[in-house]
Amino acid sequence: MPDDSQKSVEVPNAGPDEDLAIEIARSIPRKAREQVTCRRVTKYHYRCNWWSLEDTAAYDNPGMQGLLVTTSRICQSQFLHAVKVGGDLKIRVITR
Prior knowledge:
Elements: H1 21-27, E1 35-40, E2 45-53, E3 72-85, E4 88-93
Antiparallel strand pairs: 1-2, 2-3, 3-4
């Protein structure tokens, strides 16, 4: 018979070196036309940035398109704690 004095602890089943950044970036809610980038900072901590297009009306040459100029800016940033438990991604916001 199991001992009831022992509590079960959720242990992440992701490997200790598994980088979840791509999966986090795909699962994070975003507004239309926003892009999310995510980078691993420590074993279970990640920094995510939400990028949006910047208004180019004030540029001296707003006709420049593509990769010639940077027209995006970070509109939101968060530090996250993320683990995989039972195959599910569990994300907790550290900062807002």
